[in-house]
């Protein structure tokens, strides 16, 4: 089913996030996760992927190239309450730094075994878990993006776009224009390394 109907402009996301944060900042019990632009490679079509394993297509025995990682976390509201049933649409570049998207015209190779997109929901305790490949950096030398994972997160009352960054990529993060633009909000977009290629990242919404 095409996703075109619910793509929201960068301007709308940015304006909404600034207005919401300004109105609620005096009452926050949790640090709100800083939103990011939707980016140019939001999936053009939703193919029905509901599994949390991006490292293979369907039941295929073939696995995508690159370092397999596990990312887990919770979706919370500003009071620290878990958001049950929140929807996470997740997309990212493959190991080589290539998106399976018609607007990605780079010469980097596609990986036919990499799913690249997932739609999952949080449990009763707000938890979620994802198995994927650590994404590669992409772009030319002047505008190369640091490795990151995109997430479009919808609770019952709030929705925003986020990018998760990797703590071991400190130098690449520091060179990345979008990461630098986060300013004081950058730590809310940085995952915690748990060792053994596992990461933890909680997402705090303005409202549940």
How many domains, as an integer? 1
Helix percentage: 10-25%
Helix/strand order, N-terminal first: HEEEEEEHHEEE
What's the name of the CATH homologous superfamily? Aromatic compound dioxygenase
Number of helices: 3
CATH class: Mainly Beta
Amount of beta strand? 15-25%
Mean pLDDT: 86
Unreliable stretches: 1-27
Structural class: alpha+beta
Please tell me how large the radius of gyration is: 16 Å
In whole angstroms, how far apart are the ends? 27 Å
**CATH overall fold name:** Protocatechuate 3,4-Dioxygenase, subunit A
Major sheet attributes: 5 strands, mixed
* CATH architecture tag: Sandwich
Tell how many strands the DSSP assignment holds.
Answer: 9
Shape: globular
Notes on the structure:
With 208 residues, the chain is α+β, with helices and mostly antiparallel strands. The protein has a single domain (4-204), classed as Aromatic compound dioxygenase (Protocatechuate 3,4-Dioxygenase, subunit A, Sandwich). It contains 3 helices and 9 strands, in the order H-E-E-E-E-E-E-H-H-E-E-E. The chain has helices spanning 10-24, 170-175, 177-181, and strands spanning 68-76, 87-91, 117-121, 127-133, 148-154, 159-165, 192-195, 198-200, 203-204. Strands 1, 4, 7, 8 and 9 form a 5-stranded mixed sheet that branches. A 4-stranded antiparallel sheet has the order 3-2-5-6, with no helix packed on it.
